[in-house]
Design a protein that fits this description.
549 residues; alpha+beta; four-stranded mixed β-sheet; globular; four-stranded antiparallel β-sheet
């Protein structure tokens, strides 16, 4: 039987059409603009001047203010005929590639004849709908920015955003069943937590723009695909451009262990070699059909160890953790990824090698690396085929906190393998379960498509009966009344985890002096989650209560 990794290239068919109709006032003729599409059959040969480029930015700024009528300053001495040409040839690509935050402009405008003085744009959403979408986008941005800190290098910031999007979002396969309804724009990408390549590229650029890292979208008409380039500095040296394709690094099926770093900070030749179907060529010029596409030829990351890490990487205590190969026969070694020294430092190898057996067998297993890790309650958790572990960075040890077979007896006879990744969703831990992680062939040679069967909530082992309540005392102070069985009082403690308005963990509340159960919360704290902590094994035992300010 053959086993084939499901490829993404057949799924990146993200043609995007923005119908744009322009109407000229004071004339009986309705002028219909050509359809503006990301993947045109031919590249426009219009030449944009510097003044016209400034006009496009002015137009975008007016749209961002959602003006119902735009008055064109006299400084822009542009004819309505020339505006119509620029609009038809460039506007769609300009907004997609440069301003993904303008997702509510429907592409239609009316304008006066002669020298351009008035433009009346049309919007696809009401002001209330736009504000609601922008609020969601802003909250998502703040959540991502909360993962960053000032001590991070540009490389680390880009890596954090890359892994967050790859872990939190998935490819929108509705493209095949309902073309045109898939998530392409920034607002739908954030709302649905899924999208096609245009959605991934738009979200990545939007975040980069808001954390001060220069970023571009890279459209390819020929490959019908789009990705990004970023301009960053290494060790304070001159900034250079690199390709980064989050879509390709988040392939189907959508499981945490499938996250890749192969398309992370690579040059033009390297990204072409990785997958010619996706990156064989890209548009020679940018949206203005005048400026040549940005060139990336740096080899600074050509031999980066980051490319060898599978699954999400975790940043904790100023170190990067990930699963990487220690040798050709073991791809599941929890390691520190030393980015400055470009070194993988093995930390923890399980006592026995993890084997992900092919469904229903006990002697055939996949050779791929399938462990993944997450940061949950400020601790690193990772999975084996049928268990979840918590890793102690201080003792370099791991304890079992979840056994799939014990918790899911109805599934243990279906497959010899169970967990293909773990995720954190809404402050809860989940196991990703499937019986078919890769495309495979049945006995008659028919393809059985890979799939994820279920996302299963994980209840951490060691839970015990207890009761608690959280009461406000004064200001930001709380009191936790907690009952712990006598048998566990010597090793079990209570901890109060703090979450901000984005439900992002921001640290533990500080105990108030001379009190066993009073805590002072930070100003950013919106929700408190109290839980029992096993001080001897450094792991959580049971959630007990929640409180919201």
């Amino acid at each position: 039987m053959q086993f084939m990794k499901k490829t993404l290239c057949a799924l990146i068919l993200c043609a995007m059409t923005i119908p744009c109709t322009a109407f000229a006032d004071n004339t009986a003729t309705i002028e219909t603009a050509d359809t503006i599409t990301l993947f045109s059959d031919s590249v426009s040969d219009i030449q944009i001047t510097e003044d016209e480029r400034e006009f496009m930015e002015f137009f975008a700024s007016q749209i961002k203010e959602r003006n119902k009528e735009i008055t064109v300053p006299d400084t822009f001495n542009i004819s309505s005929e020339r505006f119509g040409t620029i609009y038809r040839e460039c506007m769609g690509n300009f907004l997609k590639d440069v301003h993904p935050e303008i997702f509510y402009f429907d592409g239609s405008v009316s304008y006066n004849s002669g020298t351009l003085r008035k433009i009346t744009p049309s919007y696809s959403m009401t002001d209330e709908e736009i504000e609601e979408a922008e609020t969601s986008i802003s909250l998502e941005l703040e959540k991502i920015k909360g993962l960053l800190n000032d001590s991070m290098t540009d490389t680390e910031k880009v890596l954090t955003v890359h892994d967050y999007i790859a872990a939190e979002y998935e490819y929108d396969t509705v493209l095949f069943s309902n073309p045109g309804e898939e998530s392409r724009t920034l607002d739908t990408m954030v709302a649905k937590k899924k999208g096609v390549c245009q959605g991934y590229a738009s979200l990545f650029k939007y975040v980069m723009d808001n954390i001060g890292i220069e970023c571009e979208c890279v459209p390819s008409d020929e490959c019908r695909h789009v990705w990004n380039k970023v301009r960053i500095s290494i060790d304070g040296e001159e900034k250079k451009w690199y390709n980064i394709d989050v879509t390709a690094d988040d392939p189907l099926i959508d499981m945490a262990s499938n996250i890749s770093h192969k398309n992370f900070l690579v040059n033009d030749d390297e990204i072409k070699d990785l997958d010619p179907n996706l990156h064989g060529s890209w548009n020679e010029y940018k949206w203005d059909s005048t400026t040549p596409a940005t060139i990336s030829d740096s080899t600074d990351f050509s031999d980066s160890v980051i490319h060898n890490v599978g699954g999400q990487m975790i940043y904790k205590d100023n170190k990067w953790y990930g699963f990487a190969a220690a040798d050709d026969d073991n791809n599941n070694v929890l390691s520190v990824i030393d980015i400055p020294d470009n070194e993988i430092i093995p930390l923890y190898t399980p006592p026995s090698k993890f084997r992900w057996f092919v469904s229903g067998t006990s002697n055939t297993y996949y050779s791929s690396q399938i462990s993944s890790m997450v940061l949950f309650e400020d601790n690193i958790f990772f999975n084996s085929p049928d268990k979840i572990y918590v890793y102690n960075t201080k003792t370099n040890s791991a304890d079992i906190v979840y056994n799939f077979e014990d918790e899911n007896p109805d599934k243990k006879d279906i497959s010899k393998t169970y967990i293909y990744g773990i995720r954190v969703r809404n402050n809860n831990l989940y196991a990703e379960y499937t019986t078919c992680p890769y495309n495979t062939l049945d006995d008659e040679g028919n393809i059985i498509s890979a799939k994820m069967d279920d996302l299963i909530p994980v209840k951490l082992a060691g839970a015990f009966p207890c009761s608690s309540e959280i009461l406000p005392i004064e200001g930001r102070a709380i009191r936790v009344n907690l009952s712990i069985p006598d048998s566990l009082k010597n090793t079990a403690l209570m901890r109060a985890a703090q979450y901000n308005e984005n439900n992002l963990f921001i640290g533990f509340a500080n105990p108030i002096e001379n009190s066993d159960n009073d805590y002072l919360c930070s100003d950013d704290c919106k929700t408190i989650k109290a839980f029992i902590w096993d001080s001897s094994n450094q792991k959580p035992l049971a959630d007990v209560s929640n409180f919201t300010f």
